[in-house]
Write a structure and sequence with these properties.
The chain is mostly helical. It has five helices and no strands. Helix 2 packs across helix 3, helix 3 runs antiparallel to helix 4 and helix 3 packs across helix 5.
Length: 191
């Protein structure tokens, strides 16, 4: 009797991915809603992965996605700063030429030094925007996410305090009204 051919888990994953790609190319889908968190956990459970491990993987995936988005936002902000800086540099240099400060025979050395330092700073910022240090960018993205979460939790806390204070005031007002009614009733009953 011949034994059935065996595949490693990596090979099985590659085979299943290939089958999924073939299915997607043959069956046009109008819309791919994806899987919900519970469906991912259920699929993992069917594959023999514990629910705890699946939830951990989901949380890590979401955190990685947030970090990638924050890194992209930071890169975009750096590029905006550099281009804004470059525009300001170009305009200032054009104004210097327009007013003839560059054409003064004994060129002002302080202006040349200032322009050189400014251009060096611009080039340094351009390098940092186009070729950021990945570790530093990741740390900045984490700090940005923490600030966003802190801001959101502060806002939620403020809303909860306001809501709680409103409810407390409403209950207090109701109790006061009941007390006033009782006093009014007691006063009317006593001649």
């Amino acid at each position: 009797m011949g034994s059935e051919k065996r595949y490693s888990s990596a090979e099985a994953r590659a085979i299943l991915q290939r089958a999924e790609q073939r299915t997607q190319s043959q069956v046009p889908r109008e819309r791919d809603d994806g899987l919900s968190e519970s469906e991912v956990v259920e699929t993992a459970r069917e594959l023999g992965i514990s629910e705890q491990q699946a939830m951990l993987a989901l949380r890590e995936h979401d955190e990685d996605r947030e970090l990638v988005q924050a890194e992209s936002e930071l890169k975009q902000l750096a590029s905006r700063r550099v281009f804004g800086h470059a525009i300001f540099f170009g305009v200032s240099q054009a104004l210097l030429v327009l007013f003839g400060l560059w054409s003064v025979l004994p060129r002002p050395l302080w202006l040349l030094a200032l322009t050189t330092v400014w251009l060096g700073g611009l080039l340094w910022a351009l390098r940092a925007a186009w070729f950021p240090d990945p570790d530093r960018l990741r740390e900045q993205a984490k700090a940005r996410l923490l600030r966003k979460r802190l801001k959101a939790s502060t806002r939620e806390f403020g809303e909860a305090v306001q809501s709680g204070a409103a409810k407390l005031l409403a209950v207090s007002a109701k109790k006061l009204d009941e007390g006033v009614e009782r006093l009014t009733r007691d006063t009317k009953e006593k001649p």
